[in-house]
Every structure is written in C-alpha cells, then in structure tokens.
Design brief:
The chain is mostly helical. The protein has five helices and no strands. It has helices at 3-18, 22-28, 33-41, 48-58, 62-66. Helix 1 crosses helix 3 (33-41) and helix 2 (22-28) crosses helix 3 (33-41). It is globular and about 25 Å long.
Length: 67
C-alpha cells in the first residue's frame, strides 16, 4: 500500500477512535480542515512538520501514523 494512503487511513482511524471531527483535529494540529481531508483520502503528501503536528494532536508517535 502506498505510504501516503496508509498515513491517511491511520489518521482517520485514530481520529474516529478518539471521537473527534476533522474540524477539531485540524484545529488541534493547526491546519485547514480541507488539507486534513485531503490527507485522510491520501491525495496530499504531508510535510514532516505536518506529520509531527498530527501525531501530537492525536497523542501518538509520528511512527504510529505510518505503521
């Protein structure tokens, strides 16, 4: 599986398991909701900084998002 698609699926799974909306996660990660939506669909390639902000917002290690 493509790494970007895997990242998107992991972000979506962790977000829904946490019971938060895309809008809330985007706010916590300091990014636009549309960018987060693109990431979850695997259509955007995030920067390392964006990956770090998402991991922090989801309270997981950055590596967990890529497993």
């Amino acid at each position: 599986m493509d790494l970007v698609v895997r990242l998107g699926r992991n972000v979506r799974a962790l977000r829904t398991a946490s019971g938060i909306s895309q809008e809330e996660l985007a706010f916590r990660a300091n990014m636009k909701r549309s960018y987060l939506s693109d990431l979850e669909r695997g259509t955007r390639n995030p920067t390392v900084r964006a990956l770090g902000r998402l991991a922090e917002a989801l309270a997981v290690s950055p590596g967990r998002l890529l497993e």
